[in-house]
Amino acid sequence: MKDYKRILVTAALPYANGPIHIGHLAGCYIPSDVYVRYQRAQQRDVKFVGGSDEHGVPITIRAMKEGVSPQQIVNKYHAIIKDSMEKMGISFDIYSRTSNPVHHKTASDFFKKLYDDGLFEEKETEQYYDEKAKVFLADRYITGACPICGNPNAYGDQCEKCGSSLSPEQLINPRSTLSDAVPVKKITKHWYFPLQNYEGWLKQWVLEEHKEWKNNVYGQCKSWLDNGLQSRAMTRDSNWGIKVPLPDAEGKVLYVWFDAPIGYISATKELTEHWANYWCSEDTKLVHFIGKDNIVFHCIIFPAMLKAHGSFVLPDNVPANEFLNIEGEKVSTSRNWAVWVNEYLEDFPGCEDVLRYVLCANAPETKDNDFTWKDFQDRNNSELVAIFGNFVNRSLVLMHKLCGGKVPVFHNAVIDADDKQLMDDIGAAKEKVTQSIEEYRFREALYEVIDLSRKGNQYLQKKEPWKKAGAENGKQLIDNCIHLSLQLTANLAVLINPFLPNTAAKILYMLKVVERMLDWKNAGSLKLLSVGYTLRAPELLFRKIEDSEIAAQVEKLKANAITNAATQGTEKKTLKENGAPQQSAPQLKPEIVYDDFAKLDLRTGKVLSAEKVEKADKLLKLEIDLGFEKRTIVSGIAMHFKPEEIVGKQVVVVANLALRKMRGIESNGMILMAEDKNGKLHFVNTEEAIEPGAGVS
Prior knowledge:
Layout: E1 6-11, H1 22-41, E2 46-52, H2 57-66, H3 70-87, E3 94-97, H4 101-116, E4 121-130, E5 135-136, E6 142-145, E7 154-155, E8 172-176, E9 184-194, H5 199-208, H6 215-226, E10 231-233, E11 235-237, E12 252-254, H7 256-271, H8 275-279, E13 284-289, H9 295-309, E14 315-317, E15 324-326, H10 341-347, H11 352-361, E16 369-371, H12 373-402, H13 417-438, H14 442-463, H15 474-496, H16 501-511, H17 547-566, H18 568-578, H19 594-598, E17 602-612, E18 620-625, E19 630-635, H20 643-646, E20 650-654, E21 660-662, E22 665-667, E23 670-671, E24 673-675, E25 681-683, E26 695-696
Parallel strand pairs: 1-2, 1-13, 2-3, 13-14, 15-16
Antiparallel strand pairs: 4-5, 4-9, 6-7, 6-8, 9-10, 11-12, 17-18, 17-20, 17-26, 18-19, 20-23, 21-22, 24-25
């Protein structure tokens, strides 16, 4: 492992078009903060930079909805986001914003350097244009019906209902969100970055040199690289953003995903005059914390940009998390199905560490996870209150009751196997937590800390010092038990600090020790508290969360979503006045619960062969490779596809459907298809091709 002199940690820049929700915290902000606090405790030179992403179409759409300027929007939400981050203990060294002049200059200079080096391709292409508003339309300024799920309000880059990545050309009946007009194609000029020129280097750098990256990160990168890279436009037609620094670029700005990651560089410039040490020295370790939707940008596009520029270090790791659902449903800001951090802080004052704990203990590190208010309550009451908090409280209460409020001496003459085991457990916990954090397994590391406090409770229960007063060597046995329990309490403060900083501070206060004790080198030590030292009276670290509070939060979540749906007509009217389209929703099938959907086993497959079924005009007999086996599936798609057209195609299969005989052929599964307004069938598929047999959820 390379010996780095300094560490630069970045966390994804949130769009300043609304508050942050708990999915943001779980995705990258809590993991990055845990990592940074740990590195600081190790006395390493570490800088933690972040900021608000204040350009791009989501900003202008929000401004349109609220009837204000984009600048007013970013000013409003930057302040809300920054306040939420600070109150949740996300300890940025700087939280900047991409509207700052230093960022505009940094991003412009970066673009101009690549341009002067002749690295851009200048192309004229046809793009959607709103003749009524007289502007070119970015992807998010175009809505239409999703070709996959039929959602009538899909955007030109993504359908928020089914999650499919789209292009404006795929939308059915596209409309401009500015005027509700049908857009037309018009020639425009843009500057493209030729990613394909860096494909060989990226394959070597990612696939060969970074096999240690998380599976979700490595796999997504491999899929992109295996499918081949193409030139990507790095400019957009817009009046909001960083102007393209060229004389013939009136009305054009830098693509937000070109400008946003450069925000890490500009924020570091704001932070320190020695910024180049962190960005341009090979002995700097650069780590990007992001969500899975940003993997491609941080692992392929941005590194290619840095490589092309030639002056900057490349990321050592990009530990991306998956998504956090809420109460069994995908987070949807448009439906207001979210737990907003600023509202949580108002509803649960003093419980910042509880949310940090739950989101880390249930972190979507390897797969999408689900946040429920019941789990939030259970983890608080049964883990923080009943295990961690209980041990610390018991130790201090017993010290005051049995040892006069002072740290008792430890008597080696009466040490026993239980004492030795606890000593070993303390040392082992430090090693386990250290290794887990270094390898970005924060959920595992947190478990080890809680488990150590569990072992402390078991130790107290077994030793029963409250019963030893009259026993032989009773005073010595009591002293040893309380001494070790207090040393364990001090160790817990050190180990929990990266995760729950407020909790660690409360323990320090009760132990009457300075913050320096939280240095990582002190973890595992059995001499953190001096014999004879008087400690403060115990205070509860956590409070029990009542059923009524949880019921209120569930009701609030549902009511807000209902209210949002109920007021949708009013909002659409407002948007219509500002140019957004109105479209009717399709008739949905009867409601199901999550358990109904969970019964489906959806798998990716590959069509190996296809042939018409004799005397059946609508049926094709398909041989499908599911990775673990090959299956025969009969599908009613013969009127839409020629057999030779679909060989080699990736499909999604319902793999646990009961066998069905069709025209004498046993069909073992079903191919998922979507039907457009013209009755044409389309394969439901993943954004990028992946290996047969992959689960779909």
